[in-house]
Amino acid sequence: MNFETISTFLSANSWTLVMIIAIGLYTFGKNKEPKEPNNILINSIINNNVTSLAAALEANHGPHSKAASGHSALELAIARNNKYMVAYLMKYGAAPNAKEISAAIKHNNKDIIQLVTTGEHTAILNEYNLAGCR
After folding, report:
1. Residue 28 CB neighbour total at 10 angstroms
2. In sequence order, what DSSP letters do the residues of 47-106 get, joined into one string?
3. Model-level pTM?
4. Any transmembrane segments, and where (predicted)?
């Protein structure tokens, strides 16, 4: 089927509607930005960068971010076995759920297990600050 056959088949109004739909599909479908923008919080955790994570949280990046994999920021920090990142996330409102507590137990880090079960992050953050890391 060629252009002339299609043109004669469709009336002028129908043809306009087809073009609008085609342009809309092209504009809003093919050229879409990736669903997940660059997330500084998740990138900080992936790169094991506590300073960057703390700065992102202080700049109001919410602690409830999720990675493209579906893992929460807290779950990623637990998997990184980094008690300081876990403490910062909890300081800014991340509350461990059963899945995250299970991940802490699986990784067998006593400090993180205590942190996610008690919520007491102050001592760990003080330790981090006293070490001159922040």
Report:
1. 9
2. TT-HHHHHHHHHTT--TT-B-TTS-BHHHHHHHTT-HHHHHHHHHTT----HHHHHHHHH
3. 0.69
4. 6-28
User: What are 62-75's pLDDT values in tens digits?
Assistant: 898 889 889 999 99
The residue type at 94: A
pLDDT higher than 60, residue 10: no
Place of tokens 């205590």: 114
In three-state secondary structure terms, 2 is coil
As a whole number of angstroms, the distance between CA 35 and CA 29 comes to 12
Length of the chain: 134
